[in-house]
Amino acid sequence: MLRDPSTKYRPFPPIDLPDRQWPSRTITRAPRWLSTDLRDGNQALIDPMDAEKKTRLFDLLVQVGLKEIEVGFPSAGATEFDFISGLVKTGRIPDDVAIQVLTQSRRDLIETSFASLAGAKTAIVHLYNAVSPAWRKIVFGMTREQVKQIAIDGAKVLRDEAAKRPDTRWQFEYSPETFSTAELDFSVEVCEAVMDVLQPTPDAPIIFNLPATVECATPNVYADQIEWFGRHIRHRDACVISLHTHNDRGTGVAAAELGMMAGADRVEGCLLGNGERTGNCDLVTVALNLYTQGVDPRLDLSDIDAVVNTIQYCTNLPVHPRTPYAGDLVFTAFSGSHQDAIKKGFAAQGARNDGFWEVPYLPIDPADLGRSYEAVIRVNSQSGKGGVAWVIEQDRGLKLPKRLQADFSRHVQALADETSRELGAADIWGRFEATYLPRPDDRFVLRDYEETGTAGQRLFVGRVAVDGEERSISGRGNGLISGVIAALGETGPNLDVIDYSEHAIGHGADAQAAAYVECRTDDGRIVFGVGLDSDIATASVRAVLSAANRA
Fold it and tell me: Across all residues in the chain, what is the average pLDDT?
């Protein structure tokens, strides 16, 4: 890298728009969406999709709710042409979906594009040519007038070819390609020249797609460009401003959102951001960003895993585990403090009744996307008591008291350090069983018991194996637990109960009971016991014996 990059790279010039309005606006409705997965996304693949994969992806796009789908570049070859014409001929396109094809501004390519759409009920033909200075100078060697004439000539062919096929409802889209690096006044000049040919109206508007073909500036600059264009284009009510951002600087989504604030009506992109180089705008992220602000995105992403699986299959590209909303780890917390906050958030959410989502570290309810809560908290060496307690509660229904959470967390931490890996629910439950639940080598093993007496004067009589020898032990107390502790005093440790809690696990006849005790020994140590049984009284007895075994 250069010590002084200014000797090689020039900063992008700001847009002269001192009275810009977009910074004070908010997005209150979803844009028109266009998926270009089958065109821009497909052309960016190492191995382009075959017909089976294209069809499967098309069906997913329809299922998600996309109403405008760019299905290919029909003049690129027979594969593209046959797929597009096949969609039309087989009746696979729903009546409320418009397919779109892309073409360069050349007569033969435009004619081929129209031929591929023969028989379509409605279709969009997307014409483009590059207009920026670098392309005029380096690629074409043309003047501004010559580049504008390319657009005009292409628009005339669009008009004439559509007139030959009156049974199709035609829509036209024009892209001043490389818009974001072109002079704004020239982009407007070329677009207005295309309007003069196609004569759009408010009822039949033209789509002007304003691409950040290569992202070269911060997203606020792109928003300024969009607002400037919207202010200066003639007959604004007869055109739809569409955005097509790329992610070269990592801000494709931000540029699209600020562009919408700047007045754009439509957003083009790909599900999960596939596309040339660093990718297109990720429509899933933009849509769910709207959703988390209370705006209906008009896309159905309620089964996000089905979207991910289909995209991965069709593109043969992985979806990064940190991909917003869709990655495997985006709703997962390993950090102890994060886990504790999430656990408390879920508890508070259950106690509230206003319906609004407010859980720390989770900007969206994973259930809205078809994800379960089990994977929200996962345990490794960075995890704390809240995360461990969450896993136990979600997996086994046990609501551990706070101090028991802290005690068990130490055991899980030791296991994580020993294994140096993430711990699954089975690992955690195995350690819980080994720490608190009955084991064959326990000193005290309950065989049977009975309780008699009146309130305040209870007698516990139990058959208990002590060091492998079955005995009858008994003790009196003001309740069952104190009776058990008194009985243990004959052969076991003296325990002082500090805390006791219990709860049901599940509902109905098959419900189980869980009991927890926290005790202090004669030498001041704190020990915990856990008991599980179908009977709550028996669970309490097992909890005391569990504590005694660890005393």
Answer: 93
For residue 395, what pLDDT is reported? 85
- What per-residue confidence (pLDDT) applies to 351? 85
Token pair of 163, please? 């007139």
3-state secondary structure of 295: coil
Tokens coding 502: 């219990």
Q: Which residue has the tokens 């000797």?
A: 7
537, 543 in Cβ contact below 8 A? Answer: no
Number of neighbouring beta carbons within 10 Å of residue 175: 25
How many Cβ atoms from other residues are within 10 Å of residue 183's Cβ?
12
Map residue 171 onto helix, strand or coil.
strand
Q: What is 359-416 written as a DSSP string? A: BTTBSS-GGGGT--STTTB-BSTT--HHHHHHHHHHHH-----HHHHHHHHHHHHHHH
Nearby residues of 306 by Cβ (< 8 Å), 6 or more positions away: 60, 370
**In angstroms, how far apart are the furthest CA atoms of the chain?**
106
Give tens-digit pLDDT for 270-312.
Answer: 999 999 999 999 999 999 999 999 999 999 999 999 999 999 9
Give residue 373's pLDDT.
65
Map tokens 């084991």 to a residue: 439
Instruction: In whole angstroms, give the CA distance from residue 255 to residue 382.
Output: 36
* pLDDT tens figures, 512-546: 999 999 999 988 999 999 999 999 999 999 999 99
Residue 331: its pLDDT value, please? Answer: 86
Binding site members for Mg(2+): 40, 244, 246, 280
List C-alpha distances in Å: 462 to 191, 471, 502, 539, 545: 92, 8, 21, 14, 11
Strands 526-533 and 169-177: what pairing? unpaired
Q: Is the dihedral of CA 149, 154, 155, 160 positive or negative?
A: positive
Question: Residue 144: what are its φ and ψ, rounded to 5°?
Answer: -60, -45
DSSP 79-135: HHHHHHHHHHHTT-S-TT-EEEEEEES-HHHHHHHHHHTTT-SEEEEEEEEE-SHHI
pLDDT band at 92 (very low <50, low <70, confident <90, very high): very high
Which residues, in sequence order, are bridge partners of residue 377? 333
Three-state helix/strand/coil letters over 326-358? CCCCCCCECCHHHHHHHHHHHHHHHHCCCCCCC
β-partners of residue 451 are 460
**Contact of 401 with 382, CB cutoff 8 Å:** no
Distances (CA, A) of 39 to 34, 187, 314, 429: 11, 24, 13, 49
Q: Is the pTM of this model over 0.90?
A: no
**DSSP H or E stretch at residue 69:** strand 68-72
Binding-site residue numbers are 40, 244, 246, 280
Question: Of 91, 30, 31, 29, which Cα lies nearest the Cα of 55?
Answer: 91
